[in-house]
Amino acid sequence: MADIEGAYDDLFTAVPNALSDLLDAGDVGGSVAVFVDGEPVVDVWGGFADADRTVPWQRDTIVNVYSVTKTMTALCALILIDRGELDPDAPVARYWPEFAAAGKDKVLVRHVLSHTAGLPELDGPLIAADLYDWPSVTARLAAQALRWEPGTAAGYHSLTQGFLVGEVVRRITGRGVGAFLADEVTGPLSADFHIGLAAEHDHRVALTVPPPSRDEDYTASAPGGGPAPKAGQGLRVRDGNSVAWRRAEIPAASGFGNARSVALVQSVMACGGTLRGVSLLSASGCERAWQEQFAGEDRSLGMPVRWGLGYGLFGTTYGWGGWGGSLVMIEPESRMTVAYVTNQMREPEDDTRGLDMLMAAYDGLQGLRA
């Protein structure tokens, strides 16, 4: 069996065993964390941080978690809503007047958070370098027309959601999502998660490894087997592995952390808004996240989804996953948060690793409740 480092409660042995099985099956590296009542019952890691398998995955290794980043951006918005600084029923244009152009005056903040705003992608050609220019991207979005009437349909806003929410956060606070998250959330919690990664952390980054038989030109596609990206619209592995991507603030996809930091931050939501003496939002503010905004076929993902306010809803849990396999899930009833991050991509249609980790965590939870 592959060696697993870290610590875990004996009731949760299934979780490190599941990680070991993945590494034995060929995965390069990863980490898993399970928090209950805001405290870790699993914090383990294993494998390697590089494709050549020469650098062991360490306790402080971090990785690009791609769309798991959306849960961090959503948390920032929920905090502002809870403080009364952001109204989910207000038009986005109240905070960002230019956004009202091209008939977008009826787009509400809750539409943006629930992928029902009608701006699932930027019009025209898009390369990764375009995403590094915040003023340019937000100006494009402000000028763009809607694909559908807001609130009437959902279509996963894979990259655009982060800029839309992020610009609203910036207009209200004067800070980008990365700075707001650091000042208000990860700093107070001492959580090792970053949107806009400083150079001092580069040596800790585990670069993403494409799926077997693929190279760094492998391109993102919809996790539900939806349509492939248009020509000139795809995000490649080599883009996500670039220094420019790490430095950029892309609040839907450029977050870097490990399972411990992801689980720690999102445990705020599992614990009613207060964690380790840090109060970020109220219990009712947390509940907003899992109030259903849409249920049905998602136009972008090509599969049925339920969207809450910034999070995907899955039975009694809510959270989201990222390109390549990383995942975070929150179970409010049991105050449990499960996070899995990896540098090893698999083809989306064949990837159940995050779900497997969640099921393994439930095994431990049942023992804890017994």
Task: Explain how this protein is built.
The chain is an alpha+beta fold and 370 residues long. It contains eleven helices and 14 strands. The chain has helices spanning 14-24, 69-82, 109-113, 134-143, 160-173, 177-189, 237-240, 243-247, 259-270, 283-287, 353-369; strands at 4-8, 29-36, 39-47, 63-64, 194-195, 255-257, 274-275, 278-279, 294-298, 303-307, 312-314, 317-321, 327-331, 336-342. The strands form four sheets. A seven-stranded antiparallel β-sheet has the order 1-3-2-14-13-12-11, sandwiched between helices. A three-stranded antiparallel β-sheet has the order 4-6-5. Strands 7-8 form a two-stranded antiparallel ribbon. Helix 1 packs antiparallel against helix 11 (353-369) and helix 4 (134-143) crosses helix 5 (160-173). Residues 223-232 have low confidence and may be disordered.
SS summary, helix count: 11
Q: Specify Rg, calculated over alpha carbons.
A: 19 Å
Q: CA-to-CA gap between the ends? A: 29 Å
Note the run of SSEs as H and E.
Answer: EHEEEHHHHHEHHEHEEHEEEEEEH
Structural class: alpha+beta
Assembly context of the chains: single chain
Q: Low-confidence parts lasting 5 or more residues at pLDDT below 50?
A: 223-232
Strand content: 15-25%
Average the pLDDT over all residues and give the rounded result: 94
As a percent range, the share of helical residues equals 25-40%
Which sheet architecture does the biggest sheet show?
7 strands, antiparallel
Provide key terms for this protein.
370 residues; alpha+beta; seven-stranded antiparallel β-sheet; 11 helices; 14 strands; 30% helix
